[in-house]
Design goal:
This protein has 135 residues and is an alpha+beta fold. It is 14% helix and 13% strand.
């Protein structure tokens, strides 16, 4: 079966930024570790991050020390939620075990099942540079 859904609510969705969300560069002559690079990343200058702080009315629960669950303000289907990192991580970063565990926690709570996706690339429809999965 194929389901085609017209998501009219997405017309009102703010347009995000494309490209890298990398933060400041390393000092000349030094090579930061991958952990330091992760800590240095931040949203692009001038970008208002809708997840830090998030709208209290959209908060569902904290899933772990690293992730929280929010209602999707621009939902495409009923019960459309977001698994969001509690500190900024780039949407271009690969998924890690914490991301998958938090997402599995949400999927396991859905009695009729669900689907999760991660649109991480510039051409994937990503509109937020802050790491989040959609369920």
């Amino acid at each position: 079966m194929i389901v085609l859904r017209i998501a009219a609510a997405l017309k009102a969705k703010p347009k995000g930024l494309s490209g890298s969300a990398a933060g400041p560069a390393a000092a000349p002559g030094s090579q930061p570790s991958s952990q330091q690079q992760q800590q240095q990343q931040g949203p692009p200058p001038g970008f208002r991050n809708p997840f830090l702080p998030y709208e209290e009315a959209l908060w569902v629960q904290h899933l772990s020390p690293s992730h929280t669950l929010l209602l999707n303000k621009f939902n495409v289907v009923p019960h459309h939620v977001l698994v969001v990192t509690r500190q900024f991580e780039s949407q271009q970063d690969p998924l890690n075990a914490r991301d998958l565990a938090a997402t599995q926690q949400v999927l396991a709570a859905m009695p009729r099942g669900g689907v999760a996706f991660y649109n991480c690339g510039e051409h994937s429809g990503r509109s937020q540079p802050h790491k989040h999965l959609q369920v």
